[in-house]
Amino acid sequence: MDQLFFAAEVFLNGLMAGVMYSLVALGFVLIFKASGVFNYAQGVLALFAALTLVGIQQGQVPFAHLINAMFGTNLHHFGWTVPSILAIALTAGIMVLLAFLIEKLVLQHLVGQEPIILFMATIGLAYFLEGMGDVMWGADIKTLDVGLPQGISDTVETMTADWLGYGFFLDRLDIWATMIAALLVAALVAFAQYTKQGRAMRAVADDHQAALSVGISLRFIWVMVWSIAGFVALVAGIMWGTKSGVQFSLSLIALKALPVLMLGGFTSIPGAIVGGLIIGVGEKLFEFWIGPLVGGATENWFAYVLALVFLVFRPQGLFGERIIERV
Amino acid sequence: MFYREAGDFKTTYRDDGQTFPIRLDRWGYYVILAAAFLVVPIYIDAYWANAVLVPFLIYAIAALGLNVLTGYAGQVSLGTGGFMAVGAYAVYKLMTSFPEVSIVIHILLAGGITAAVGVLFGLPSLRIKGFYLAVATLAAQFFLVWLFNKVPWFYNYSASGQITAPTRRVFGYAVTGPTTSAPAKYLICLCFLFVLAWAVRNLTRGTLGRKWMAIRDMDIAAEIIGVNPLTAKLSAFAVSSFLIGIAGALLFAVYLGAADANEAFGINKSFLVLFMIIIGGLGSIFGSFAGAAFLVLLPVLLKNILVGSFGWPTNLAAHIELMIVGALIVFFLIVEPHGLARLWQLTKEKLRLWPFPH
To answer: Which residues span the membrane (chain B) (predicted)?
Structure first.
């Protein structure tokens, strides 16, 4: 019985980890649908957003290390702190600016290239942003606190202890993250379905040329989609950053989002969510049951191997559109 | 004025199909070979060997390997680091289990083992294509590195979890272990690179190479004209992994001396080698060399300028290096998707007309 409760707890924690993966995967799907770009840099965007947020919040001087090295000064902080809400708004603004720059400097020049070239370009972009984030804000591990509740939820523990005789340990942050992610998904779906811009976005996703011919500006849509993806990255960055500190490993979470996408299918928003949940639960349960037998740390590779095995049987993923090839 | 084919008559198909059809190119190639084998080993010192030449030679092998798979056969792989780890751990197990056998045989066997592993992970490529495959090869990367970290048999139950290369000799000279001299390191890597590059060049212009390129350009069309995708794709995986395995074995045994799977063969290695072939040129032997040279030299150069001349802290220089590498990748993809190899080709075209362009 206890074993079962343990497993249930692991399952719930897996679900919540899965929500986090879905959050990153969502950014991928948005960009992929609208511009056909498989954006490897999504995870680094999250890292960059989190770094910028911490930097603004704590009043760090951007490029302080570079300026110090060049001019021999000793700058670090402006000496003020910015309230969380304002800092988040400012960071969102920076992400929009970044989206604009990416469109202007990179994507615009690569229109019509093969998908794999675009993918490699985003790998380059990821390296650039990673370096820039470190040069701008320093590479040390930072703690991020925007006032989200943390720690083990007492209410859940006492409630389940009363009902089942077994107290479930759930992190309050995870519960909040799940709710915020659900809200975000609902908002995105509503945006895509019911607003003018959302409709334009779906039109672009369906057919670039047809969309262009009815007067939709491709460039505007792309900047908009990258901005939204930047915003999603910001949310993901806040969640992961609060959970485990703002550090380089944050960008590796993006890599985890790749098998999530493979599983769910690249073009499907529900797919990203379901894929994330499957991977999250799967890797937690696998680690719980099989992990101890083979030495642990199976979370490093389980998601990829699962996606690999799955793809062999269904190459387009769970909800992806069927791949039709012609000569 | 000097660089042209005028007066360079060919009377057989064999002459016409050779790798360097222009006489000046051929002589240049012989001169470079002679210098690399005879002159450089006399003057090489530990700094040049460790910082520039040995890593260049080893990464050139790895880049050649990945170029076979990605550049010629069109299968994008992000598992290079994992396959290099297979080569390194295989050579380590062979060296410690059979000390009396020559290290050269061990390195070749390590390549063979890696080829087998590569074929295994290449099997899904028959169903999965494009960047789906790229992500699927990540499974190889993470699973293999995890395996070498978690199963103590692979590192002979050493306390640190690291593998350390014992001293092995070729013709009486130590080529691995702490007492290895700079020329010995350099020469063993050079010999492997020379033989492998020669082999790859000849493979890629034979039947096998043409099959690979047909698969790359469009696999369904290739299948219709009679190329068997199973053998073509798997042979590309096998040849590529063989080279990458040898590169991994040399990287561990000759260059690093001691290695830890996570640090030496992480995901960053995969990207590094991928960048080499993007910058150098996909589907080009010269491109593999150029890309490896570029990405080995760039950090050394930047470090000398930023840390040496400006006196900036090392970690800042490392971050700026990341930015520059990233920006260069994007720049190359926008301006010249065929890489340095294409630039070199354009230079040669210009040179043929110079100084009378009409």
So the answer is: 27-44, 50-69, 101-123, 130-148, 183-200, 236-259, 271-296, 316-335
Q: Return d(Cα A71, Cα B311) in angstroms, integer.
A: 11
Is A307 part of the contact surface with chain B (CB cutoff 8 Å)? Answer: yes
pLDDT at res. B1: 56
User: Looking at residue B349, what is its pLDDT?
Assistant: 84
Tokens of A60: 């760090």
What distance in Å separates residue A110's CA from the closest CA in chain B?
6
Q: What are phi and psi of B166, to 5 degrees?
A: -75, 165
Pairwise CA distance, residues B167 & A299, whole Å? 37
pLDDT score at B194 = 95
The list of chain B residues with pLDDT below 70 reads 1-2, 358
B296 is written with which tokens? Answer: 């080995």
* Residue from A305, A303, A309, A319 nearest A17 by CA: A303
Task: From chain B, pick out residues whose CB is under 8 angstroms from the CB of A300.
Answer: 142, 145-146
CB pairs under 8 A between A and B: 144
Cβ atoms of A189 and A270 closer than 8 Å: no
How many CA atoms within 13 Å lie on the side-chain side of B241?
A: 32
pLDDT score recorded for residue B113: 96
What stretch of H or E contains B342? helix B339-353
* Chain B residues close to A295, C-beta within 8 Å: 150-151
Inter-chain touch A124–B220, beta carbons under 8 Å: no
Angle at A309 between CA A304 and CA A313, to 5 degrees: 140
> In this structure, is residue A152 part of a structural domain?
yes
Give the ipTM of the model, two decimals please: 0.80
Print the domain residue range for A82: 2-249
Residue B153 Ramachandran class (φ > 0 left, ψ -120 to 50 alpha, else beta): alpha
Q: What is the pLDDT of residues A222-269, one digit of tens each?
A: 888 889 888 888 888 888 888 777 777 777 777 777 888 878 777 777
Nearest-Cα distance to chain A for B243, in Å, is: 23
Q: Is residue A39 part of a domain?
A: yes
* Global confidence as pTM: 0.87
**Quick one: A72 exposed, middle or buried, by C-beta within 10 A (0-12, 13-18, 19+)?**
exposed
Q: Is the pLDDT of residue A57 over 70?
A: yes
* Residue A200 reports pLDDT greater than 60: yes
- Domains in chain A: how many in total? 1
Q: Are B132 and A132 within 8 A, CB to CB?
A: no
Phi, psi of B73 (to 5 degrees): -100, -5
pLDDT of res. B116: 96
Does residue A66 sit within a domain? Answer: yes
The answer to the question of residue A186 being in a domain is yes
What's the pLDDT score for residue B275? 87
Query: pLDDT digit string (tens) for A121-136?
Result: 888 898 899 888 888 8
Would you call B313 an interface residue with chain A, using a CB distance cutoff of 8 Å? yes
Coarse DSSP helix, strand, coil percentages of chain A, rounded to the nearest 5 percent: 75, 0, 25
Residues contacting residue A47 through CB under 8 Å, at least 6 positions apart: A129, A130, A133, A237, A246, A248, A250, A251
In chain B, which among 118-147 make CB contacts under 8 A with chain A?
A: 124, 127-132, 134-136, 138-139, 141-143, 145-146
Q: Does B328 touch chain A (CB under 8 A)?
A: yes
Å from A107 to nearest chain B CA? 9
